[in-house]
Amino acid sequence: MRGTIRQDDFISSIADALQHISYFHPPDYIRALAEAYRREQSPAARDAIAQLLTNSRLCAEGHRPICQDTGIVVVFLEVGMDVRWETALGVEEMVNEAVRRAYRHPGNVLRASMVRDPAGARVNTGDNTPAIVHTRLVPGDTVAVKLAAKGGGSEHKAVFATLNPGDDLVEWVRQVVPAMGAGWCPPGMLGIGIGGTAEKAMLLAKESLLDPIDMHELKARGPAGRIEELRIAIHDAVNALGIGAQGLGGLTTVLDVKIRDYPSHSASLPVAVIPNCAATRHARFVLDGTGPAGLPVPDPAGWPDVAWTPVPTARRVNLDTVTRAEIAAWTSGDALLLSGRLLTGRDAAHRRIADLTARGEPLPPGLDLTDRFIYYVGPVDPVRDEAVGPAGPTTATRMDGFTELMLARGVLGTIGKAERGPAAIASLARHKAVYLIAIGGAAYLISRAIRSARIVAFPELGMEAMYEFVVEHMPVTVAVDATGRSIHQTGPDEWRRRIALTTIR
Question: SS3 for 52?
Answer without folding.
Answer: helix
